[in-house]
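DM between two lab members

TW: hey, do you still have the NAD(P)-binding domain-containing protein entry open?
JB: yeah, one sec
JB: this one, 203 aa:
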Amino acid sequence: MKIAIIGGSGRAGREISAELARRGHQVTAISRHPENAVQDAGVTAIAGDVKDAAALSALLAGHDAVVSAVMFADTDPASLVGAVRASGVARYLVVGGAGSLEVAPGVKLIDTPEFPEAYKAEAGRGGDFLTYLRGVKDLDWTFLSPSALFFVGDRKGTFRLGTDQLLVDGEGNSSISYADYAIALADEIETPKHIRQRFTVGY
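TW: and the structure you got?
JB:
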């Protein structure tokens, strides 16, 4: 498959690029700093700005799927979704956040006293992006939320999937590495099971 990754030079974007290239897919890593993208024969790094919707749409055209791996604070959902829509690519996957996941019925992680103040703005924008996506009916979108701790670590290949509830292990920890998150996202691209849904991944 030909897969475009918006934000391909970031931590999530790089791991997703590497995982997809490992599986034999052709990856286009789009970012403002293409020199920081994964160096792999299966990855083509090109310059692009998420804030230039018309130019971005042209870069996305011709791909089988688009992955958005950019900070929510740097994006406008209507503009970004509009660029994907205009490109003609129907499959759209978003690297989400954990803040909008529930820790109890009706209680989101972002609303708990323990949630770090420094991350609230980004997490709030992520929740708004998900709300916007839930109103989109003409794209086959998927929003994949990581666990609370999203970290650089080993590719274990073992994890659990959930829906709208924060995944927590037996010791009360909620975590997933970028590498294992990339496996879950690549699996979803290859075998779609969460069309127009949010799901989550964690240990």
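TW: got it. The helical segments are 11-22, 53-60, 77-87, 120-133, 178-190. The mean pLDDT is 97.
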